[in-house]
Amino acid sequence: xxRSRRGPVEREPGAPSGGAAxxxxxxxxxxxxxxxxxxVGVRRGGTALLSDVNWxxxxxxxxxxxxxxGAGKTTLLKLASxxxxxxxxxxxxLGERLGKTNVFELRPRIGLCSSALAGRIPGxxxxxxxxxxxxxxxxxxWREEYESLDTDxxxxxxxxxxxxxxxxRAFGTLSEGERKRATIARALMTDPELLLLDEPAAGLxxxxxxxxxxxxxxxxxxxxxxASVLVTHHVEEIPPGFTxxxxxxxxxxxxxxxxxQVLTEENLAKTFxxxxxxxxxxxxxxxxxxx
Length: 291
Ligand SMILES: Nc1ncnc2c1ncn2[C@@H]1O[C@H](COP(=O)(O)OP(=O)(O)OP(=O)(O)O)[C@@H](O)[C@H]1O
Hints:
It comes from Saccharopolyspora montiporae. By secondary structure, this protein is α/β, with parallel strands linked by helices.
């Protein structure tokens, strides 16, 4: 995988990668952040979907966004993928401010994998074309011939996700898990600087989930992989190698920062409104209701 287009950011000496300040001569440089939300609120019809969210993602970070149904996770991803504008505050993505930039130029730099996007892919579309067409910012095949460089790259990504043998199949004939992996390959096709994964393991059986978690872990540990944000309801779905966590509840941030510090029983209880027991085995997390 190619290295991100931007170089490494400079941290203050000794400072952990906490998702907060990137400093150049003492100043926070928003341009060096992959995502930067400042005082962000989103309102729809009198309802607050997000309230006063402050959040920064740096180049080398892999974030998990965790929260119950309706917490605002997808809304957060819609801001990061430039599909939605904030009602309050500012959103900067890849150094560009939403509302002041051409999002159509920004979107090819962002890889998005979501069930909403997968649902728009025509069932008859050949899997390899589903992936390769991302390079042309279209969902279906629109040219008779793609460049062999592009089809080779698409095959390479399908292989990476373990579905290379399905490249010639129609997308509609794939299982849920196979579709997930093919759409992640599509999200990576443009060599994005930011990868957004909305519930990639939802609907997968145990084996499919474990396989996907392993592949996402490989991606997370690849220093050349893009900054990533993965949305999930389940701590079991956090791939090893993810570095940071943002816990959301009712549109507000419960906690955020380094995963090891954020993922605590106390924070999970606040997030899910349950008395939860959290266990860790190696780099994997498991949670269940206490008692
Ligand atoms: N256009 C809208 N008008 C009013 N409410 C909305 C609108 N869009 C979303 N909501 C509400 O905002 C809240 C947050 O939605 P969002 O999809 O971001 O949550 P989520 O954390 O992704 O949930 P889930 O885990 O169930 O996918 C939900 O309660 C949802 O019903």
